[in-house]
Amino acid sequence: MFFVSDEKMLDHCIRWDSYHIESPDRMTVILDRLKSCDLLDNANILPSRSASVEEIEIVHTRDYIDQIKTICTKSIDEIEDYCKTVEDVYMNENTYDLALLSAGCSIDATLSAFKEKSSSFAVVRPPGHHAFPSVPCGFCWFNNVAIAAKHARSSGAQRILIVDWDVHAGQGTQECIQGDNGIKLISIHRFEHGNFWPNLEQSSVDHKFPNTINVPLNSIGEDDSSFISIFHLVVLPTLIDYQPDLIIVSCGFDAAIGDPEGEMKVSPHGYGRMTRLLMNTGIPISLILEGGYFLPSISRDAEFVVRALQGETFPILPTTPFSSTLNETLRRVISSSSPSTLQSIKYLLEKSGKTREPNTTSPEYKGSRIVPDQYPTREIYQEKTPEEHARFVIELEDVMKRYEEEGTKGSKIKLTISEESQFSIKETVEGEIEIFTSSSLHPLVHSTIISYLNPETSFSPSFFTSPSTQQLDIFFEVILSLSSHSSFSHIPLIRILTQ
Ligand SMILES: [Zn+2]
Q1: pTM to 2 decimals?
Q2: Tens of pLDDT along 287-333?
Q3: Which residues are catalytic?
Q4: Ligand 1 centroid – CA 29 distance (Å)
Q5: Domains and CATH numbers, the chain
Q6: How far does residue 489's CA lie from ligand 1's centre (Å)?
Q7: pLDDT at 237
Q8: CA distance 22 to 287
């Protein structure tokens, strides 16, 4: 595992206000936690490096880059005046240099993971995924993830999957990678039918960007169970369809417990498990820090991501039925995906007769964007009261304790691949699970069932062949018959076909 960061990036901070959620403390608590747990002792630490202007130009226009450089040399009042003309950013005299440093570290971490067939984590700021080719946005100046992906393409990567689990839509990345069929984006984000920032219709399931799959969340409070279900029903099957040679994660921690922006409930174990599921594909993976604002959560989230990258095992998390809004979103994502994507899942969902619930005929996007004459630059974010802070710390600790006490280490799975028995699954009296499957069904079975029952199992998607209709029909009948069995009924694929 490669790791890169640089405490110089702490010098990017707001000068004209006493509080901002995108604070240098975010980076400090993460670095302190990783050091205090000795988690970086075995990591391959990369030297930090600033990107050159030419490297940034792979995504951003030269005029934009020059403009940022010039504004950074002005007085703080002039800088604030500039920030009133663009959406939700701050800047000080260091920002241009540190945005180059943030991008340079992201490029090197990503190329190291790709070339060495390994993993990397870049703890950087300012973040990047809201930045457009010629406009900054949402705390972001240069789009680190898009820049890193484009440089990986230049270094030989044929197909790159970007998984953006930051709670805000990766709308900047969506535009930066537009038209490049060698890069695909899956963005999982709070949406509330367009009533959550950035309130854009392009963050819906249905949009005009062929290489982006959006998973918009229309309710707050989605937890580990929801995110893991999205992984098993959308992310891992897409990964098998697309077969990337590199995965890049826009690794925000603002869907975490206590986060004032996301208001979701993902735990450190949840982030660890999502990381592990991606790693188990054997595809090189580069994680690049984005948002995340509840300091007690993000330090533990980063810790569990690194523990996962270093191969630690975690207890399996209990799962719950989907919320009705997530159920609707998942159905919409699967049924609206392009013909080459999620084919098998789509077929099974159609066969279940539950492709579209009646309420999904109502418009998906109900938001509106209000563009003010001047964007506010002060007192936009409020600090939590000490009572609120303490309440979320207790919630975080309770969830972590519960997992350690109640979680299991996964089922023992015996897998038999045989062309004669196309698919069956049973649990032995010893609690061992036996799965018989044909080779063409195997990747689908792995991504939806095996890796769910035991997230530690590694797999290689390289042998993928599409299952035949007949095989899928058999698979469908067997998984339906398993839905009443308590050992299997919580599997997300079974839930979505029956719920
Ligand atoms: Zn965010």
Answers
A1: 0.97
A2: 999 999 999 999 999 999 999 999 998 888 777 888 999 999 999 99
A3: 130
A4: 17
A5: 1-337 (3.40.800.20), 411-496 (no CATH)
A6: 33
A7: 93
A8: 19
